[in-house]
Design goal:
This protein has helices spanning 26-33, 45-53, 57-64, 82-91, 106-111, 139-145, 149-152, 157-174, 182-193, 202-209, 213-225, 254-260, 269-291, 336-344, 370-375, and strands at residues 16-19, 38-41, 70-74, 97-102, 121-124, 198-199, 229-232, 248-251, 296-302, 308-315, 319-324, 349-354, 360-362, 365-369. By secondary structure, the protein is of the alpha/beta class. A six-stranded mixed beta sheet has the order 9-10-11-12-14-13, sandwiched between helices.
Length: 385
């Protein structure tokens, strides 16, 4: 068996969906943990053809293999009609576990996740987090190329990322018929890349890629459904000042952002590095929260006057406010937004992540080196503050 890097994700005993973008290692994880169980790989053309013609065939396969207690259907979104047959099998109470992987929730939302609600859990697999890697790449390389397993394993990460985007767009967008004009969608991907780590202004994106606002709204929903991007809502609970209403936008991996973001002579490297760092922290917080069974809701906070805190983690017993700065020292202006949030929510814990080497406490604000923070992030443990 090829070299395997253990993941923090752990399989529940109940049947579950395992969602995650292509290349995050869903199949690798399952093949490592379930090498001899019943596999139905819908990416295989002959397998796909047999089940698209007769989805109920899975009932015959399961009944014909009574010794198999785990049934894995890889890329279930390819044939959503299989969910009806799987629902029927679950109702038979055969004491079998179904694991249904997917890199897109779009068709499944329309045709059947609700059908299995309560019977099948929803789980996610993310790119690597730094604490999963015993010997991670240099931090600057991580900011540039991200943490997708297929990229970490490669000697030419830039080439892999270029191919990844091209294949993903073709297979998940064009082949599935999600957009009518692939050229418009490609221009949209470039335009929306400037929103990574920023407020999402759909009208501005539409103007930039020269398509209607309604079309851009649909494109953004496609990115969310195929798990390439996420919107982060603003924290509005018991607000003491006027807040903006636009969400922030992030691609799921900082390497994907780097590939999609056009670069030119007017782009300042430090600006790119700043939003890449912020995106890297976001993807770590999402993974840590998901693998810890989601103890927090994730937000950001921004007043109409422009005071912003990058991430708010709102849990049952605490509020954590995290600001990310791509600077190797802590300046007084770096603490301004956290101070404002702390004044409004004195029960919160304000945290600054920066590129320096020392842990500091300044004006009740914990200042922590970002790289060591991410390397010390483990599921089901408190944040390393």
């Amino acid at each position: 068996m090829e070299f395997y890097i253990p993941r923090f994700f752990s399989s529940p005993e109940q049947s579950y969906f395992l969602f995650g973008p292509r290349g995050t290692g869903k199949s690798t994880f399952l093949k490592h943990h379930y090498p001899d169980e019943l596999w139905i790989d819908l990416l295989q053309p002959d397998v796909y053809r047999s089940y698209i013609a007769r989805p109920e065939r899975i009932i015959e396969i399961v009944h014909g293999n009574p010794d198999k207690t785990v049934i894995i259907v890889d890329e279930i979104q390819k044939i959503p009609d299989l969910l009806g047959a799987i629902h029927s099998l679950i109702e038979e109470k055969l004491n079998k576990q179904f694991i249904l992987t997917g890199s897109s929730a779009r068709k499944l939302k329309r045709t059947g996740i609700d059908l299995l609600a309560g019977r099948v859990l929803l789980k996610t697999l993310h790119p690597f987090v730094l604490s999963e890697l015993k010997s991670p790449p240099p931090f600057e390389d991580i900011l540039r190329y991200g943490l997708l397993p297929i990229v970490i394993d490669s000697k030419t990460p830039k080439d892999v990322l270029d191919t990844y985007i091209a294949l993903y767009v073709r297979e998940e967008v064009q082949t599935e018929g999600l957009v009518r004009n692939l050229g418009h969608f490609s221009r949209f991907l470039e335009a929306v890349s400037f929103s990574h780590g920023s407020l999402l202004n759909i009208s501005n994106v539409a103007r930039e890629c020269q398509v209607e606002r309604k079309v851009v709204e649909g494109y953004i929903k496609i990115l969310e459904d195929i798990l390439l991007a996420y919107r982060l809502p603003v924290f509005t609970k018991k607000a003491k000042r006027a807040l903006i209403s636009h969400p922030k936008f992030y691609f799921f991996d900082t390497g994907v952002f780097h590939v999609l973001r056009p670069k030119g002579p007017l782009d300042r490297p430090e600006e790119m590095a700043g939003v890449a760092l912020e995106g890297l922290v976001f993807q770590h917080l999402r993974a840590w929260n998901a693998y810890s069974n989601n103890p927090y809701n994730l937000y950001f906070w921004r007043s109409r006057g422009g005071i912003e805190v990058d991430f708010i983690l709102y849990g049952e017993d605490e509020i954590l406010a995290i600001e990310v700065k791509n600077s190797n020292r802590v300046r007084p202006e770096d603490l301004r937004s956290l101070k404002a949030f702390y004044n409004d929510f004195p029960q919160s814990t304000p945290i600054l992540l920066y590129r320096g080497k020392e842990k500091l406490l300044k004006n009740e604000i914990r200042c922590i080196p970002c790289e060591s923070f991410l390397k010390s992030l483990f599921p089901n443990r408190p944040l390393p503050i």
